[in-house]
């Protein structure tokens, strides 16, 4: 049997028995100390008890079956009790012997009870053989032995059945625990399977919900498209009706168009004559523009020459300005040298001041001339820009006149071709009129078909709306199923 059975720990029983042995030994020592005092017998008993306690303690830690430990504990205790009784007969010795025997019953092993009980019977008989009076404080030792054996063996029988029934009960409980453990393992296995299935079910449920949502979204898109198609079909029917009316009006306009074509042909001839006259006048204007262009180019060359002369004057003035600045610098140096010369340099200082004044006046004159030259340059630049603009305008005018001349020539050719085309147009108008009548009949047929198509689209749209409502209800149902499934999973996880 295992040291620790399911629901019953034999190691704990051995520990309790060891504590009982320690307690019994302590009580024996206290009893001897109280009644006999600390004599040599007391110390001998102390040594014996400590030896017995040491042996039992060492045995407790030996890795053997707990039933064997229990048998040894009981035998040692019963041996100590009988030895104590042989030294001095007392009821306490028999109580200690019964305690030792009861220790074996804690293991719920009927075989162990019989072994320990038989060993105690043998020890009692041997003790009686050695010292008959040790078994009973009576003149009739055999009668005392008989009573002891009868009482003790009756106790053995009772404890045997108690142990047997207790073991059966323990075995039954252990079996139930094993069955419960197996059921628990099966339940765990089932829960794991349910968990695996729940994961697959969750994925399938999510996919199903997504598919329904996708279908609903597609239905919504189809509904929008069908609504637009239905609206377009209705508008198409209206437009076809309007086209029919417009074609009738167009037929009337074609008749009026023929009359207008004749009038246009007459007017075109008159306009052709006017175009020829305008072309001649444009050619005359073109000749005048060439003369103006030559004059403007001459003016532009003159302005360019004037600009070159002004630039040379500016260059000369810049040289004069530099000379005036150098003269002013020399006058300043002369004044400094005259100041150093003292009285001898006064006349030289006066000359230096006059030179300085002349240099200053020269600089002012040059500045004035530069200002005038600058104004002339600016006006000349403006004049040059205007002349250039005039040249550009003349070039643009020449291009426009050339374009107008070409336009008049093309217009003349166009009018001639247009007159011929107007004649052909009259003939084609008659053919177009007949085609318009045929198209009008076909448009009426198309209008009828369009109305039927619009009605069919409206019926299909109504069916889609009903299907969309069903999809919405299905989504709500899937949401409820998902909610209940999550609640079931929580219950399974918490169980």
UniProtKB/TrEMBL annotation:
Gene3D superfamilies: Methyl-accepting chemotaxis protein
A GO cellular-component term linked to this record: membrane
A Gene Ontology BP annotation from the UniProt entry: signal transduction
Record InterPro entries: MCPsignal_dom
Transmembrane recorded as keyword: yes
Entry superkingdom: Bacteria
Keyword vocabulary terms for this entry: Membrane, Transducer, Transmembrane, Transmembrane helix
Keyword Amino-acid biosynthesis: no
Transmembrane segments: 16-35, 41-62, 91-108, 114-136, 148-166
Residues covered by the Methyl-accepting transducer domain: 211-468
PANTHER family: LYSOZYME-LIKE PROTEIN-RELATED, METHYL-ACCEPTING CHEMOTAXIS PROTEIN MCPB
Name of the protein: Methyl-accepting chemotaxis sensory transducer
Organism: Pseudobacteroides cellulosolvens ATCC 35603 = DSM 2933
The organism's taxonomic lineage, starting at the top: Bacteria, Bacillati, Bacillota, Clostridia, Eubacteriales
């Amino acid at each position: 049997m295992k040291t620790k059975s399911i629901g019953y720990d034999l190691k704990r029983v051995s520990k309790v028995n060891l504590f009982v042995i320690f307690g019994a030994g302590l009580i024996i020592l206290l009893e001897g100390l109280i009644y006999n005092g600390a004599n040599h017998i007391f110390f001998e008993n102390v040594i014996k008890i400590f030896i017995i306690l040491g042996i039992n303690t060492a045995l407790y830690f030996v890795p053997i079956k707990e039933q064997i430990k229990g048998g040894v504990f009981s035998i040692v205790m019963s041996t100590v009790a009988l030895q104590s009784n042989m030294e001095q007969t007392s009821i306490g010795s028999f109580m200690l012997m019964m305690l030792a025997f009861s220790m074996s019953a804690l293991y719920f092993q009927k075989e162990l009870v019989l072994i320990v009980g038989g060993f105690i019977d043998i020890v009692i008989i041997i003790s009686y053989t050695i010292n008959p009076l040790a078994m009973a404080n009576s003149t009739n030792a055999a009668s005392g032995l008989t009573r002891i054996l009868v009482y003790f063996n009756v106790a053995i029988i009772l404890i045997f059945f108690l142990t047997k029934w207790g073991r059966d009960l323990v075995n039954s409980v252990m079996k139930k625990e094993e069955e419960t453990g197996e059921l628990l393992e099966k339940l765990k296995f089932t829960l794991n399977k349910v968990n695996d299935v729940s994961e697959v079910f969750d994925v399938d449920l999510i996919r199903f919900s997504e598919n329904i949502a996708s279908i609903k979204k597609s239905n919504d898109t189809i509904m929008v498209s069908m609504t637009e198609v239905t609206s377009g079909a209705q508008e198409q029917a209206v437009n076809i009706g309007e086209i029919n009316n417009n074609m009738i009006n167009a037929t009337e306009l074609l008749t009026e168009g023929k009359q207008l074509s004749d009038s246009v042909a007459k007017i075109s001839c008159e306009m052709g004559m006017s175009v020829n006259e305008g072309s001649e006048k444009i050619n005359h204007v073109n000749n005048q523009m060439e003369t103006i262009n030559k004059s403007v180019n001459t003016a532009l060359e003159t302005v360019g020459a004037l600009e070159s002369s002004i630039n040379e004057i500016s260059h000369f003035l810049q040289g004069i300005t530099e000379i005036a600045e150098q003269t002013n610098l020399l006058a300043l140096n002369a004044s400094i040298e005259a100041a150093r010369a003292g009285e001898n340099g006064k006349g030289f200082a006066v000359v230096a001041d006059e030179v300085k004044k002349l240099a200053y006046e020269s600089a002012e004159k040059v500045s004035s001339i530069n200002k005038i030259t600058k104004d002339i340059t600016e006006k000349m630049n403006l004049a040059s820009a205007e002349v250039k603009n005039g040249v550009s305008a003349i070039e643009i005018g020449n291009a426009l006149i050339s374009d107008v001349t070409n336009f008049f020539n093309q217009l003349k050719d166009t009018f001639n071709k247009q007159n011929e085309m107007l004649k052909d147009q009259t003939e084609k108008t008659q053919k177009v009129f007949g085609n318009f009548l045929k198209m009008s009949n076909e448009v009426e047929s198309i209008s009828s078909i369009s109305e039927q198509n619009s009605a069919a689209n409206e019926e299909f749209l109504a069916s889609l709306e009903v299907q969309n409502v069903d999809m919405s209800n299905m989504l709500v149902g899937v949401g409820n199923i998902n909610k209940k499934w999550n609640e079931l999973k929580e219950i399974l996880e918490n169980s």
